[in-house]
Amino acid sequence: MSGENALIGKYLETSGIPALVFGTNGKLLSWTPPAEELFPEIKAGGQGSCDIRTVILKRVSPETRIRLKYLFENGTPHFEIEFPSGPREDRRWHRMFVSRQGDGNRFALIQDVTGQKIKERHLMLAKKNAEEASLSRSQFLANISHEIRTPIQTIIGMMELLGDTKLDEEQTEYSRQVRFSADVMLTLINDILDFSKVEAGQLKIEIIDFDFADVVERTVDLISMEAHKKGLEICITIDPGMPLRVQGDPGRIQQILLNLVKNAVKFTSTGSITVSAEWKTGDKISPRNGENSWVRFEIQDSGIGIPDDVKTKLFTQFVQADTSTTRKYGGTGLGLAISKNLVHLMDGEIGVRDNPGGGSIFWFDLPLSASKEQPVPEPLELDPATRFLLVDDNEKTLGILGKMLASLGYENVQRATSGSLALRKLRSASHAQLPFDIVLIDMIMPEMDGWRLAAEINANREINQAQLYLMVPEGSFGADAKMKLLEWFNGYLYKPVKQRRLVELLREHWQSSIDLEVVEEIGELQEIDENAQTVPAGEKAPKRKANAEPDQQPDESARAADLTGITVLVAEDHPVNSKLLKIFLEKAGAAVLLAEDGKQATEQIRANAVDIVFMDIQMPRMNGYEAAAWMRKNEYPQPIIACTASAQENEREKCVSYGMNEILPKPYKRNDVYRIVETFVPKAKMTEPAGGAMQERPKSQETPPNETASAEIFDAKAYLEIMGDDEAIAASLIDGFLDQTTRHMKTLRDALAGGDFGSGRRTAHLIKGSALNITANRLAAAAKEIECAPDNTNTHGFAERFKRMSEAFAELKAALKAQYGGGGNPS
Question: pLDDT category, 468, cuts 50, 70, 90?
Fold first, then answer.
């Protein structure tokens, strides 16, 4: 052995490492002292006689023994094997590294790997426990998910049933919020409880078309009640340039907004919260949709603010600005981390900055593209010169309302931050002969609240001509609900104010045929029998007309049919017409479904089994012709009855060409309604009408010869027949008709004077329909002249027609005064 090899051998012997040298036959040639401690067989056999292969083979498992024999016999240059030593209770594990040398012998180093094996065993056990725990957790989550989903589905189902019952406007709004909240909860459960999907990073982002404003406003609605209970003002402002429909994931956007707005409410004790959305375009291209458009969302609060050193860590899991916040406000801080992950999944950005006025502004940008098909908003017919007064002690709300109205084309808007200032502005406007048309009033204000202000306005004849609308913070109406009985307001608008609700209010303001309280009165009276004189306890019985006989019997032709067992769809956008048909049909036992336009009518047909349809011809969105054509194209086999005030000779042929079966002329008469149903609905579908088939009253009896002249202006007898001989209902509609027609006449005059003949024709159509409803035949005929005027009619021609119409209206007012003693109250 050379000097260097001898030196290595010397060091090896004193190293404490077991080492062996054995020949190709396995016979042991050399070893270090620690090897003897590991293999007692070495001492017994000695050099050249101990077969180390046999010694090792005895210590390994049968599978390893087969492998080791193969390695020894085939002269593999390098390999390693593991084997145990010692008794089972104190067993140790070793790893032997074997290498073939140049002279054919094998050199082996042995390492104690007991500690490593123990670690591996612990890891294996931990892995097994984790897998078992994961399985148990998955089973638990599946079970609890089912248990939670079940009551939520019940809530959703019950809210659908509740929505089918008779609810007032406030109850309907609360019901809608409960249903929407349940839907949100169900969506969150479907995502969060499926924990394996979260762990595996399998959350998917949808790209679908959705109504942007609807998603934002409904999401904020979920938190608004909580905000108002804390005395916080919550506002929504959406960029007027925002597309009505966009492409993205509405569920994830809702989840992010919900987290951020809820945090803003949680950490704000006084002041306001503003949720804004702005449509932006720029140079950055989204890898998701390949477009350069995105939306900047901002949630601005006046809360406790966030220190600079915490902002960088704020979107990390379980991090809050201050550890005391958990005790004071609750929560874990996980919501912001979830929001950040969702924003990044949608290729967006999220952050926070200080609010200059105190508090924080959380923002996030999401790449969203405009949907290819955008709905065409129905134009508002309200005069752009309409004068508005906005009354609210919160200037931010006033600013947002002003922007909403400006985006709709209304610039003549003034603001007042208190009730006293509003009164001064109303008086000043009246003195200047520029009175306000519409006043929006906040319910909760210091010193003088909305109710007190309305009382002051209604009591002052100088300023009480304006239409008043009360803005009610969500969830704050309960204690004041009975105040609605005072009828100081023309309608109500829930806060935070949404643009679509504001548009609906303005459309109803212009187009409503009868004041709200009158329509409600019909609804309250519809369950009273036509010929009964029963009234609720504590109320006065309605007076009879002075010229009516006390015991006068109703006309025999006015008896009720029995329409039990049939379902009727009434598609009519005129609320009084719709209500009258509903009253006639329900009193005869029919089930009645309502639709305000042709689009809703087609949806009702898809969802319900309908035996006959009464279809108004002139309706928004989809008119009666289009709706009837759709129904026939989609194989709706039942009768469709056209409801029209048109007297054109070819009207019936036109209706038949669109698939309708018959025409019901306006104004509606109860007997005509019953006759048509009995004619077109199979007898098997309903009970035989009481007294046999309906007979029309001979025309000679409808209008006696001596009443022809007055009936041309106002046919009182025919009008009472339309009202089912119910004098209380008949009288109650007159005041509303006069008030509405006066407003429409002013609108018509202004439209014609300004050369807006299209708007004039539409207004004349409304007046004609209302006039026919109360049998004001001369006024209806005069309105029809304007409605049907040829396109080449000049301004002078329209002026002549309007003059005749004004004269007819004056005659009508005189006739109604003579009949009802100056208004709708029976004399």
Answer: very high
